[in-house]
Amino acid sequence: MQQIQLYIEGERVDMFKDESVSITQSIQNVKDPSKIFTDFSKTFNLPASKINNKIFKHYYNFDIVGGFDARTKKSSNIELNYLPFRDGKIKLEGVDLKNNKPHTYKITFFGSTVTLKDLLGEDSLSVLEQGLEVHNKVYAPSDIQNALALNPKTNDVIVPLITHTQRLNYDSSSGNSSKIAGNLFYHNGTANDPHGVKWSDLKYAIRLDVIIKAIETKYSINFSNDFFVNTNESYYDLFIWLHRKKGSVASPSGFAQSIVNGWTFELNADTQTIMVSTSVLRVYGDILKYPSFSLMLTPVASTPYSVSLQIDGIEVYNTGTVSNSIQIDKSDFNVVQGDYTVYISSDSDIDFSSIVWDIDYRPSGSQFYQHTYSTSTYSHTNTFDFNITQQIPEMKVIDLLTSVFKTFNLTAFIDKNTNEIIVKTLDSFYASGASYDITKYIDVNKSSVNIALPYREINFQHGDTKTLLAKQHEQLFGKGWGKTEYTNGEKLDGSIYNIKTGFSELKNERLIDAKDNNDTDIQVGFFVDDNQESYYGMPLLFYPIRQTSSTQISFLTDNTTKVPLTNYNVPSNSVSLSSSVSKANINFYAETNEFQRVSPNDFTDSLFEVYYKNYITSVFNPSNRISKVSAFLPLKILLNYTLADRFIIGGHSYKINSITTNFKTGQSELELLNDLW
């Protein structure tokens, strides 16, 4: 029999001598293959002894000020025969009383990996300021243009050719105007102007690894570099699109603001108004005799905007949100002497055919003066500081980690010597295990052999495949984009099990030249629903690939100005656009690659093939069984085994599906799987 010792914040607690204490551990279970961050939790009943009353500060007495805080978990550890066994935390659940006296403290012990979920709690990704703020950018045409050309191999924040509103196309036909909207063909003449990708239809993206590092910083934890390492391109090359809301990027306040400038005017010798800069109108002199004083704004399209009028830096009038032409006159505010500025606010780009000050006055005598100050055309651009934590998708930290772990079939456990969180693929985890021959410890009077497979089918997919092209793919082929449905090709009994991540997956589109139907070097993403309306969905995971091409694309810095780009980042579901470089991709199924469009498909290293196949095919193997045996394992095994280890029984090797140990009796109940890989 093994003796168990329990410590709370370094103090040993008293335990009931006759209490049976059992602990169950499992890292991967055939009954729940998507379960991650698995560890054990165990409820203990402790006597209300003098020692325990002191540790828990007589919790039953609520008159005590500054007593034990049961709202938080406390550091704890378990020993076997005074040797370290497991670290974790305890939570006080309550106290049972008998005859109005304390009798039993109820506590729950949580293993270290379980407490990771408790540490992260309900926090969203937006709390990761400390690790992400150094990556904040400016959301402006020149910045987006530069980021579109950055190399994602060496830059952590880039811009991909993924649009949220306008579908992109390519048509090099000379003089063609039928496909101006979204036509990426660059033409330096006027026949096709304006056309291209508008800067405000693009958004930044950030490397997934940067977010993982920010999680480590925020919570003072350390993941191992077994998987989370820059040499692992299938992971390290992944980016998350910074898509917080559907449609245009919104400033933190919801609206980006710009000061109206570029005013021109006709010179008059007797003026009592003057433009002292391109953006400031100075009013002075005998202003009370102004019969007319108005500001008129004429937008090109019905785009929501607002106008703020300020005098000497103080707002004197605000229109609120409007969409059409407006006029502001002296009935809306008090005309006084000072410097007048006009601000436009909008969460989208907006063009005005003109913004005009119209001022009529009669300062003295019968002389009448009229002054018109006009910007002619004016463009408001949605320019502001792009704060990563304010633009990152709405997602809980724990949900991001869970989705990453499901994507790559990762396991996590705490190294009890270093306190590092070891993260490995399941295959790597099992490859690191040792072997223990436990034949002589087996209770031969108690064992059973059972079917291992409770399912007839296991489906793997990302959580959101509802964007336009992915939805069309499902309608055409009867299967979700990137989804695999594993049955081993047999009709079996049982239920269907679904493994689903919290990510979106986009089916991208390689553009062809409408002029001659030839392929271009351009691949784009169109993040809209099947009604071609801007879509939010789940966070989008993708590989950006920098193209250096003779195929120029047209980049619009505003509604009229375009520049040619030969370097730009295209979105991809594969690590490379060439299977000779890498066959790895972010699909669970080896879909035909959007860029190569070859058949048979050469991009065969799907998520299922690389990270799930060995385990799942072994579970579906007709030779697989769950063997249940009892054993009296010695202390040297109980203290040192890991769930990656194999147990040898009668010359046969088994993986551990689960192990439950009763420390009062010293008996362990083992669920073992045939070691088929």
Give the overall average pLDDT.
86
- Counting structural domains, the number is 3
Whole-Å distance between the termini? 35 Å
Number of helices: 12
Low-confidence stretches: none
How are the SSEs placed, and which strands pair?
Elements: E1 4-8, E2 11-12, E3 22-25, E4 41-47, H1 50-55, E5 74-80, E6 83-98, E7 101-111, H2 112-120, H3 129-132, E8 137-139, H4 141-148, E9 157-158, E10 162-163, E11 197-198, E12 205-207, H5 208-219, H6 233-236, E13 239-241, E14 256-259, E15 264-265, E16 273-275, E17 281-283, E18 292-299, E19 306-311, E20 314-318, E21 326-329, E22 338-346, E23 350-361, E24 369-374, E25 378-380, E26 384-386, H7 388-391, H8 397-408, E27 410-414, E28 421-425, H9 426-431, E29 435-437, E30 442-451, E31 455-461, H10 468-477, E32 484-486, E33 495-500, E34 509-513, E35 518-526, E36 541-556, E37 562-572, H11 607-620, E38 625-631, H12 635-638, E39 646-649, E40 652-662, E41 667-674
Parallel strand pairs: 10-35, 11-36, 29-39, 31-33
Antiparallel strand pairs: 1-2, 1-5, 3-40, 4-7, 5-6, 6-7, 8-26, 9-12, 12-13, 13-36, 14-22, 15-24, 16-17, 17-22, 18-21, 18-23, 19-20, 19-22, 23-24, 23-25, 27-28, 30-38, 31-32, 34-35, 36-37, 38-41, 39-40, 40-41
